[in-house]
Write a structure and sequence with these properties.
By secondary structure, this protein is an alpha+beta fold. It is 20% helix and 19% strand. The longest helix has 12 residues.
Length: 107
């Protein structure tokens, strides 16, 4: 993953792409299929307003995981599928705010 940013400290005529530090929210949610997940997720988004969100141990994969990610309000997402009921990671971001290059997805 990478973020495009101009790191020249005030000497460049090009303004930086980010006017404030990038916020990343990481949440070990332990079951995104829980009926309260979306409410808690939206509360976290309103409070912290992150550019990038990492959600772990959702215990949801496949089409159901993709459907949930698509409904969370971010323009892009990537899912690593769970191994049994563990080791899954969801990465969500808005492509107008941050540029992410997924280099690989493994179990």
């Amino acid at each position: 993953m990478s973020s495009q940013a101009n790191l020249n400290l005030g000497k460049s005529p090009n303004p930086p792409l980010f006017k404030s530090p990038m916020k990343v929210l990481s949440w070990n949610c332990r079951r995104a299929a829980n009926p309260h997940f979306k409410r808690h997720f939206h509360n976290l988004m309103n409070e912290h307003q992150p550019y990038l969100v990492v959600i772990t141990e959702t215990k949801v994969g496949g089409d159901r995981g993709k459907d949930i990610c698509a409904s969370l309000g971010f323009s892009k997402f990537e899912i690593s599928e769970p191994v049994g009921f563990a080791c899954d990671i969801w990465l969500l971001w808005n492509d107008l705010e941050v540029c992410c290059d997924i280099l690989s997805v493994t179990q």
